[in-house]
Structure formats: C-alpha cells, structure tokens
Design a protein that fits this description.
The protein is mainly alpha-helical. The chain has a single domain, classed as Farnesyl Diphosphate Synthase, CATH 1.10.600. About 70% of the residues lie in helices and about 0% in strands. It is built from 14 helices and no strands. The longest helix has about 35 residues. The radius of gyration is 20 Å and the shape is globular. This is Polyprenyl synthetase. One of its GO terms (molecular function) is metal ion binding.
Length: about 300
C-alpha cells in the first residue's frame, strides 16, 4: 500500500530520504544486489512517518526527528535483508541447511544497515531511543525464532501466531511511535498509548496483507507461512485439507485448502483485523491532538485495505 504523506510532513520526510540516500550511497550497488527495494522504495515509509507524525503532535520537526526516523527505516531494511535468508517451510519442519554464497552477502548487508541505524540513533535527540529500537530488534529476532509448528492444540497454535506477529509486525512500529514521543519532549505518560498505536497499526496491516493474499492465490501459505485465517479455519480438529497444506504447501494442496480457509477462516480473520483497528483508534485518542491526528486516524482506517 502506497502511503499518502500529509503536507506538513513532506519536508521532514524528504530529509529522511536524503539521510537514507547519503548513508547508503557508498554501498548502494551491493545493497541492490540483495534487494533493489531495500532502501530505494520510498512508497512505504510507515515507521518513519510514525516517528514524524507522532513527534509533530508535540510540535517537534526537523533534523533531530529525521535522524530517529531514518534509523527505524534502516532497521526495517536490515531485518528484511536478513529475512531473505529464511526458508519458512524448511524452518517450520525443522530442516536446517546451509545457504548459497549470496546468503553471506545478504547477511553482511543486513549487519551493515544495522550499523548505519546505530549511527542515526546516536544522533537522535533522546538517548532512550537507542533502548527503544534495540528492544524492538530483540523482539524481532525472538519472533523469527518463533513459528507455528503444529496446528494442534489449537490454542497453542493461536498463541504462537500472535506472539510471532506482535514481534515481527508490531514491535518496530510501536518503537517508532514511542520515538516520536521522545523526540517531541511530550510527557512519558504518552509512551504507552504510542506503543499501542504502533503495535495495533502494524498488526492490522499484517492481517490485511494476509487476507488480501488468501483472497487471491494463497502465496503466503505456499511460501511456508501460516496466516491467521489458516489457523482459525483449522479449529480444534483440522480438516484433512488444512493438515495437508500445513505439512506440504504445494499448488495442489493450497488450491484444495483455500475454499475451506475462505469460508471458515477469513471471516474470523476480518474480525481480528477490525479489532486491531479499534485498538489503534483507542490508543490514538489517548495521545495529544495535533495537526497530524486526522492523518493518523485515516492511516488506521486505510490499514484494513
């Protein structure tokens, strides 16, 4: 989803883009070898925009806020570089294998981007931002080590899904929103609702992406992922088609399972998406009202598209 940038954030976002370009210019060719869109695609700067928009609620703008925003985008790029190394299906089945030569390049690029992010954090206006982002990275790593390995018991599968989703989809947006509070010198009492705003917004976007995929071809499942709707469709006694696609996601098993997932899983997943949006709106209502409040509210609504 391409994000619409509010006019009051245009200048600050351009400064973020400048910082990202300048910091990565020396190694741009190698970074592009791993993924040409790691840094170069400015259409989804959700985390940077959260920093900028929440900071604007307290009247903060400019270079110091931009450093915190650039740092979180570099962390996001680093985690995506490392994600390219992961075979979800093999990991879920407990099969570990050595990667090809280019895995080493992706690993080094990810580490390099983490190092660049550290430099931007050091230039941020509040040293606590370093702790926020470091904790988010720790959560992301823990999320990558967490995977749904069995659909039974159903409660365990659901708990594992949410633990993983909150780490991978919610931790960094939560830290970004909190960084916005620290950049603006707003009272620390706003840190908790800011974290909830970012977390629930990130989860809503993740659920929306899963739903769109299941309404289409189910490529997430075929890549080895276990979307919420699949787990919900499995229930306490998973149908044979769900068990088969979970164990061996092939075009044939995906095609056989999709009608069941769409009938029994998607409606419940849509309810979960709506619940995440409501929670994000509630969190936003607990933050100070500013010029970017309407845009943040619209962003929450659009997260379900």
């Amino acid at each position: 989803m391409t994000l619409t940038v509010p006019p009051e954030l245009h200048h600050d976002l351009l400064l973020v883009e400048y910082l990202l370009h300048e910091r990565t210019r020396a190694r741009a060719t190698v970074i592009s070898m791993v993924n040409p869109h790691l840094i170069a695609n400015p259409t989804d700067r959700l985390r940077a925009l959260l920093v900028l928009a929440v900071a604007r609620l307290g009247g903060a703008t400019g270079e110091y806020v931009a450093h915190a925003a650039a740092a979180v985008e570099l962390i996001e790029a680093a985690t995506r570089a490392h994600n390219d190394l992961i075979d979800e299906q093999a990991r879920r089945l407990g099969r570990v294998k050595n990667g090809a030569w280019d895995h080493g390049v992706a690993l080094m690029v990810g580490d390099y981007l983490f190092a660049l992010a550290s430099g931007e954090m050091a230039l941020s206006p509040d040293p606590r931002i370093i702790g926020l982002y470091s904790h988010a990275v720790m959560q992301i790593c823990e999320g990558q080590l967490t995977t749904v390995t069995n659909l039974i018991p159903h409660e365990t599968a659901l708990a594992t899904y949410w633990q993983r989703a909150e780490a991978l989809a919610g931790a960094l947006p939560a830290a970004a929103a909190q960084a916005g509070i620290l950049c603006s010198n707003l009272p620390d009492t706003f840190l908790a609702p800011a974290a909830r705003l970012g977390k629930h917004l990130g989860l809503a976007r993740q659920l929306a992406a899963e739903i769109r995929d299941l309404e289409s071809q189910g490529s997430f499942i075929q890549s080895g992922q276990a979307p919420l709707a699949l787990i919900l469709a499995a229930g306490a006694a998973p149908p044979d088609e769900i068990q088969a696609v979970f164990a061996h996601p092939t075009p044939e098993t995906v095609a056989a399972a999709l009608p069941i997932i769409r009938t029994h899983g998607l409606p419940l997943a849509r309810e979960s998406l709506a619940a995440q949006q409501r929670a994000a709106h509630q969190a936003l209502s607990e933050l100070p009202v500013g010029s970017t409040t309407p845009w943040l509210a619209t962003l929450i609504e659009q997260s379900g598209e």
